[in-house]
Design a protein that fits this description.
Number of strands: 9
Number of helices: 11
Helix content: 40-55%
Oligomer: single chain
Strand content: 15-25%
Radius of gyration: 19 Å
Largest sheet: 6 strands, mixed
C-alpha cells in the first residue's frame, strides 16, 4: 500500500511563527510556492518520488532532484520558489539535539551546519527509502514509536554520511558562513542539559554575555534562558513518553536543579504537570 495516497497532507503555513519548532515529524506535503522563508531549528529531510523542487536560500536557487534522500538544517532560511511534476513529497524533521547526539562523521555534520544541502548521488537507494519513509509515516501516528523512528533515521543518515564521504563528487549544493546566532544556538542545543551560565555562552561564541542575549532576543524574539527552558521541556516530554524514568530523574537529567523548578517550568510551557501530561498522552 502506498501510504502517500491515504495520509493527510500538509503545506507551508504563511502565518506560521518563525523559529516555531516542528519537533519530530514524518509527513507528506503538497508543494506550494512559499510567500516567505521558513526557519526552524530542526534537521529537515525531503524526498520527492517524482519531479523537482527549487528552493531559494541566501539568494541562491537550489533544485532538489527526485528519488534522492535530501537533508539540510532548517535554521538556514529556505523558501520554495518553483516546483515541477510534484503532487506530494515526504518531509521529516528531527530535533537538533537528537541529531547532534548521534555523533555522525564530523565532515558530514560540519557541512550541514555550514548550511549545505546534502543528497545521495544516485537513486539506487530510492526503493529502500520509500519503504522506510512509509513506515515512519505510519509509525509517527503512534506515540510510543518515536524511539523506533529515531533509531531508523539515525541508521539511514549514518549510511548516507558514509556514502557521501566515500564519493569523489561534490556533496554540497550551497553553503554560507555560520552566523553568531547559529553559533549560540548550536552551543545551547549541545549543552542545555548542563548548568549553563551567561559567561559560558559568551566565552563559547566570543561575545559579552549581555550582547549575546541581546542579539539572540532580537533574532528569535525570546531570551536565551527561555530558549533553554524550551529545549529542556521538549527533552522532558520525550522522556515522559518513551521511558519509565521517574519524574525526579527526568527533571535532573534535563538540567533542572530542583523538582519544584521543573514542575513550575513544565506547567508554564505545557499547561499541565508532568504527571498529568504522561497520564493524558500515554493511555
Amino acid at each position: 500500500m502506498n501510504i502517500m495516497n491515504s495520509e493527510k497532507c500538509y503545506s507551508f503555513d504563511k502565518f506560521r511563527e518563525e523559529f516555531k519548532p516542528y519537533g519530530l515529524t514524518c509527513e507528506t506535503w503538497i508543494p506550494r510556492v512559499m510567500p516567505r522563508y521558513d526557519r526552524h531549528n530542526e534537521i529537515e529531510i525531503n524526498y520527492l518520488p517524482q519531479g523537482n523542487i527549487t528552493y531559494l536560500r541566501h539568494n541562491e536557487k537550489i533544485t532538489i532532484p527526485n528519488k534522492r534522500f535530501t537533508i539540510f538544517w532548517g535554521l538556514v532560511p529556505h523558501q520554495i520558489i518553483h516546483y515541477e511534476n510534484v503532487e506530494k513529497y515526504y518531509v521529516c524533521t528531527i530535533p537538533f539535539a537528537h541529531f547532534l547526539s548521534w555523533k555522525l562523521p564530523a565532515q558530514f555534520v560540519d557541512s550541514l551546519l555550514r548550511g549545505d544541502i546534502l543528497y545521495e548521488q544516485t537513486d539506487e537507494y530510492s526503493q529502500y527509502d520509500e519503504f522506510l519513509l512509509n513506515n515512519w509515516l505510519k509509525d509517527s501516528g503512534v506515540n510510543m514509536q518515536s524511539d523506533l523512528i529515531l533509531l531508523e533515521m539515525q541508521t539511514r543518515i549514518t549510511r548516507m554520511a558514509h556514502h557521501l564521504q566515500s564519493s569523489d563528487d561534490g556533496i554540497a549544493l550551497a553553503s554560507y558562513q555560520t552566523t553568531l546566532i547559529e553559533k549560540i544556538t548550536i552551543y545551547l542545543t549541545k549543552n542545555y542539559c548542563n548548568d549553563i551560565k551567561a559567561n559560558d555562552i559568551g566565552d563559547a561564541v566570543g561575545l559579552h554575555p549581555d550582547y549575546a542575549n541581546h542579539i539572540f532576543k532580537k533574532a528569535f524574539g525570546t531570551t536565551i534562558s527561555d530558549y533553554i527552558a524550551e529545549l529542556r521541556i521538549a527533552h522532558a516530554q520525550r522522556k515522559l513518553l518513551t521511558t519509565d524514568m521517574s519524574i525526579t530523574d527526568i527533571a535532573y537529567e534535563c538540567g533542572f536543579n530542583s523538582i519544584a523548578r521543573f514542575n513550575a517550568t513544565f506547567f508554564k510551557k505545557i499547561q499541565c504537570t508532568p504527571r498529568e501530561y504522561k497520564k493524558k498522552i500515554v493511555k
